[in-house]
Amino acid sequence: MFSFRMPRWQPTRRRVPLSLAHVIARSVPGAPCGWVFFDGSETRIDTQDGEAVIIPGGAFFPREAHRFASEGEAQAEASRLNDASLCLDRPWRVRAASAFTVERVTAAGKLMASLG
Questions:
Q1: Of 94, 54, 98, whose CA–CA distance to 74 is shortest?
Q2: What is the 3-state secondary structure (H, E, C) of the chain?
Q3: pLDDT single digits (tens) 35-47
């Protein structure tokens, strides 16, 4: 017989403009801009001791990062990631995405704001 399944409806996530967003990042000197940004993905691993460890997904540039509309929301997520992380030496921190804005000069000599 025939069967028909509707995919589960999920609300569309509104993308927060980078100029207003907060991101979660950690300092990594070897990364292209010196930071790795949390991209919203994670892999959960159960250790032999029975503990769950989260390995957060990372992005090299802020425009690729998962964006949070409020600092409080981002801080709660950063705390959750730090509590379940194996990496204690470089904790995840909340930063305003605008902190990574770089002024660049175009070929015509005009300043343009660029993120990354």
A1: 94
A2: CCCCCCCCCCCCCCCCCCCCCEEEEEECCCCCCCEEEEEEEEEEEECCCCCEEEEEEEECCHHHCCCECCHHHHHHHHHHHHHCCCCCCCCCEEEEHHHHEEEEECCCCCEEEEEC
A3: 999 999 988 888 8
Q: Rounded to an integer, what distance in angstroms lies between the CA atom of residue 58 and that of residue 65?
A: 8
* Cα 2 to Cα 16: distance, rounded to the nearest angstrom: 42
Gyration radius of the chain over CA positions: 18
pLDDT band of residue 12 (cuts 50, 70, 90) is very low
Instruction: Note the pLDDT tens digit of each residue in 74-88.
Output: 999 999 988 877 766
Burial-class residue 61 by CB neighbours within 10 Å (0-12, 13-18, 19+). middle
CB-CB contact of 74 with 62 (8 Å): no
